[in-house]
Each structure stands twice: as C-alpha cells, then as structure tokens.
Design a protein that fits this description.
heterodimer, A: 203 residues, alpha+beta, five-stranded antiparallel beta sheet, four-stranded antiparallel beta sheet, B: 230 residues, 30% strand
Chain lengths: 203, 230
C-alpha cells in the first residue's frame, strides 16, 4: 500500500513537471493558442499587475505581468506579446524577480521597426534593462535576451545608468548616465547586436 | 521744372536701387539660412508616397515596410476650418497639446530639436503633405539623414522662420524615443499620433498636398519652453 502511494506521488510529480515543461512559456518563441484576457485573469492571483504597450505599427501588444511567486520575497514576471487581429500569443520571458524589484514596460519599449522590445528593472540598487526579440528567437550568440546593464558594467565601469529612454533607431537604445560622483554623465547609444556603446553627440 | 524732373528721376532711381538691394540682401540671407531639411527647401512638396526608396538616419537604414500615412479622411470639410484650433508645443515637457478654444483636445509626447534647436514663437501651418522627403544633417559628425515617405508632414512658418527653412510637425518612423529631444529641429510625433494631428489641423487636406489659403487657413502653432540638455 505504501509502495503504491509512493509510486502515485512520484507519478504525480513527474506528470506535473512534464505538464509544466510542456506549457512553460520560455524564450523558445513557440506560438501557443491565444488566451483571451478574461479567461487568463480567472487563474491569476489577486495581486497581479499588468502593463501593456502597443507596437509602433499597432499590430502587436506587449504585456508585462507580475504575479506573486511561490517563494517568499519573489514575484513571477512574464513578458508576452499578442496580436488581436491574428489571435496570436507569444511568451518571451518568464522569470522570478525580487518583490522589491519593479519591472516596467516604458512607453518607448518597442523598437521603431517592431522587432525588439525592452523591459526595465528598477531596485534601490539601480536600473537594469533586458532586450528581447519580438519573434521569440535567439540573438546571434544564442541568448534569448541582451542585458544592457551587463554590457554597461563591462564597457563603462565608471558610469551609472540613469535612464534608458527609448530607441534612437531600430537597433540603438538611448542611454542616459550619471558619473560615479552623481553628476550628470554623457548619453550613449547602445547597439543591441554589437553590444557596444557610442557616445551621443548633441549639436 | 526741367531741373526738378531730373531730381525726381534721380530720387526714383535711387529708391529703385535701394529696393533692389534690399531684395538681394533678403534673398541672400534667406539662402544662407540653415534649412531644417535641405530637400524641402528646394521644393520637393508633392506629398506622394515614393516606393522602393531606402531611408537612412544617422548612418542606419530605417526604411519602413509599409506606407504609414493612410488616407483616413479629414475631420473637417474644406472651408470649415476653425481658427479656434491651436497647437502648443512645450519644449520643456516635450509634449504637443491641441486646443479648440480653451478645451484641450489631445496631447502627445514629441521629440524636438537635439542636433539643431526647434524655433520658439508663433507659427502657422502653410502646407500639409501626406508624405515628405527630408534630407539634412552632416555626414562628418554622423548626423546625416535621408528620409523618404515621412508621414503626415505639416510645415510651419512664422515672422522669423520663413517657409524655406523647412520646419514642421511630422510622424517619425525611424526612432521611438518620444518625450526626449531627438530631431534636427522639427517636431517629431509617433506616426499614429501625427495622423490624428494631421487630420485635425488646418488646412483641411485635399489630396496628398494641401496649401493653406485664406479660405482654408493653416492652424496656429505656439512653440514655447526650453529643451533640456539630456
């Protein structure tokens, strides 16, 4: 009897994992059937927060959802895009973030060619930005996201990111900085493909 | 009598010479003025979509995949343009607000002059183009741009800004950094927002190119504030 119980529990765990893995909205870019918002909300925890931004051509909507995680002090952030016209839904990222971290989709999140989108994370310690391909595919180095803040720490260790305001062109993000002493620093353009920063001229 | 006639003749010739000189100096000054868009200064004002053209902005190719300025129909019929309409662009907050009388009709984020200042003062729209070609900037400092099919262009002028300078409100498909200075002097709007403004302002559109007239006047624009150096 005890063996049957153990087998039953083990089978439950395996099946749960298989189900979780099969439905995991990872950075694979797989298209899954469109879930109307009302149906989705029925299963969401009460303290979820949702933010949406339309792509410049109006064909896609990016939605960032934050829901309470299972672990204490953790929330689950999901970034997905949907197309109302074609009834498509694509999850670009799902990950745990600290509850004191704010994940935002700024109004200028979409690249002007509708091919990339960035998410901004803020904590008391600072700001970080991850960039995703809207088609859910990997970048040339195989990664599914580009970390602007990681590249910034490598290339410009003496600066602090003040803000990332939007896209200067289809592949360049506009980055404003502080000097380490708190003074306003130069602005840069971050090339999401080359992972390089270029000082931005004024006049 | 004969003497006074020659005096009058000399005065007349002198007056004509002064007038001619003034025109020459004015034209020379106008030509020497920096155009916000050098192409618009040469009169490329058809307003038509130009297919198969490659656009470049700051050294990057930025050609949109589809025409952006679709005909949606103006909100006003020709001859019914109201002078109560007024647009205010605030460089400090990087916003455009449209008023009808005292009533705020719509407000949008904009991107104004970063590499060349957007002029402040009182202006009027003198022509609306469904699509425009804009070229300018400087290849030497990486600010060169050659942009085809710029959607919903509304060129404006004022007492100190002649039409030939090529300043305007228009949609911008090559960047998405609205709310921050990002232009060579024009007022950039999201294409969708520019479409709403284009359809709302005078002159009421009649085809792809519409000049303001007394019967179909251009809407007033006030540009105020100071652009923050970001």
């Amino acid at each position: 009897m005890r063996i049957y119980a153990i087998v039953f529990i083990a089978a439950g765990i395996v099946l749960s994992y298989a189900a979780w893995h099969a439905t995991r909205p990872a950075s694979s870019g797989n298209m899954v059937s469109y879930v109307p918002p009302d149906a989705a909300q029925a299963h969401e925890p009460r303290e979820s927060s949702i933010q949406s931004v339309h792509s410049p051509d109006g064909s896609w909507t990016a939605t960032r959802t934050i829901a309470p995680g299972d672990a204490a002090g953790e929330s689950i952030m999901t970034l997905a895009i949907s197309s109302g016209g074609e009834k498509k839904y694509r999850v670009l990222e799902t990950k745990g973030i600290p509850t004191d971290m704010d994940a935002m989709l700024p109004a200028n999140s979409w690249s002007p060619d509708n091919r990339h989108i960035f998410v901004m994370y803020r904590t008391a310690a600072g700001l970080s930005v991850d960039v995703y391909r809207a088609d859910g595919q990997a970048f040339s180095d195989g990664s599914f996201s580009v970390s602007l803040s990681h590249a910034f720490r490598e290339k410009l260790p003496d600066g602090v990111i003040r803000d990332v305001t939007g896209w200067d062109d289809p592949s360049l993000l506009h980055v404003m900085t502080y000097e380490t002493d708190g003074r306003k620093g130069p602005s840069y353009r971050f090339d999401i493909h080359g992972r390089n920063f270029y000082t931005l001229s004024y006049r | 009598m004969k003497r006074s006639f020659s005096v009058y003749s000399v005065l007349l010739i002198a007056a004509a010479a002064v007038a001619f000189g003034a025109v020459v100096i004015y034209r020379a000054h106008d030509q020497a003025s920096v155009c916000a868009n050098s192409v618009s200064c040469t009169g490329d004002l058809s307003g038509d979509y130009q297919p198969d053209k490659e656009s470049v902005f700051m050294g990057e190719r930025v050609t949109p995949e589809e025409p952006l300025a679709l005909v949606r129909g103006d909100t006003e019929v020709l001859g019914e343009v109201s002078d109560e309409k007024h647009i205010v662009v605030d460089l400090s907050s990087q916003t455009l607000t449209a008023y009808e009388g005292e009533t705020e009709v719509m407000t949008f984020p904009v991107a104004t002059g970063r590499w060349w200042p957007t002029p402040t003062g009182e202006f009027r729209i003198w022509v609306k183009l469904r699509y425009a070609h804009m070229e300018g900037g400087n290849p030497a400092d990486g600010t060169y741009y050659n942009l085809y099919n710029v959607p919903y262009t509304m060129y404006f002028y004022g007492d100190n800004i002649p039409k030939s300078r090529g300043f305007g409100l228009h949609g911008a498909y090559w960047h998405n950094n609205f709310g921050h200075p990002m232009s060579h002097g024009c007022v950039n709007l999201r294409p969708e927002d520019a479409g709403l403004v284009y359809e709302w302002v005078g002159p009421a559109a009649d085809g792809n190119m519409t000049h303001a007239t007394r019967a179909n006047p251009g809407t007033r624009i006030t540009i105020t504030g100071i652009t923050a150096e970001e």
